[in-house]
## 1
Amino acid sequence: MPFAGGSIYDLTKGAIASFPRDLGPRGMTVNNIQPGSIDTDMNPADSDFAVKMTKLVALGRYGRDSEVAGMVSYLASPEAAFITDASLKIDGGFTA
């Protein structure tokens, strides 16, 4: 179902999708990290909501900020220089 402002949203998504081709020749990579539920002060792993959420996660727990930071660190490293235009889920299997 279309929504108000949907065409603007679609245009911005298209623009973002073109970044790898535009920036690749400059040696820049563009990737998207999609974290699932991460244990934070605002989203604690021991909340009532978390009890319900972890039942939907294949690994059965919330992620840690250090795990997301590790993914970011890897993508920023020379070892990941050939990774671009990737959407990387770090959600413990929530979407599996």
## 2
Amino acid sequence: MKQIKTLVAAFVLLLGASSFVNAQSKVAHIDTQKLISEMPEMIAAQKQLSQLEKTYTADIEAKFTEYQNKIKQYSAEAENQTDATNQARQEEVANMEKEIAKYRDDATKDIAKRREDLIKPLLEKAKVAIEKVAAAQGFDYVVDSTPGGGVIMADGKDLMADVKKELGF
């Protein structure tokens, strides 16, 4: 009787251990930041954003130069002008300052919006490719191994090469 109990206990332990092994999930990892930064579309988007930033910077610098020239001109002519004229010129200069600040803020917002509009589809494309590769290779979970992203050790399968192949680069 004791042998039967031992045999049943061993069978239950063996069954439990095999269930535990079968319940193990396959986990892979990928550095999504690196993947996205190496996508050809991202490189093109970065160039486009850089060009937009240069355009806005040139416009702001031109407006600022005009502003400085007005200040120099008005300062040099201030003694020969009436108080009313000097007051009007001070208001004009103050309005120019406000316009430059508003233009700078609008430019910053526009660049941020364009960045979001360009990058959002790339993030989605990368996500779809990661999911497709992971499903094809039988992975249950894919962890983002971007440095600082919370993964301490990444010994599992790295999907970077396979996802790049799926994306065509």
## 3
Amino acid sequence: MSIEEQQELKQKSYAEAIRYMNNAKETLQKAKKEDNYYSDRKYVRTACGTAYNGVLLALDTYLALKDVELPKKKRRSIDFYTRNISKIDGKMMKYLDVVYDVLHLDGYYDGILDAPVIKRGFDNAYEIINKIKPQTQG
């Protein structure tokens, strides 16, 4: 993949991943936070699922940029991501562990309402997404 193709892929994927995160943040606002807890599990679950999907998009792009061949099937297991990310970037693997546990398992499946925990999941999601952030011109 040429440098121009890499930059184009980064721009397109980064913009889409950020769009997912923006949608997730909007949805999370609907969950209404009181003290350190959200009050509406449905919105928390939806927001966490949306944010997690944005991370998966970023991970697919990151791995493609590292010349890792993505399986043909659209639905990839977390094992695929952990196996490949752990070989490339240990720090990113830590971010992925948090994102998977907090956003996917605790947030999406279990619907936890603990706002600081959800925030930590979102913060780690941005760390992963920023790995594909395109270089700015100028």
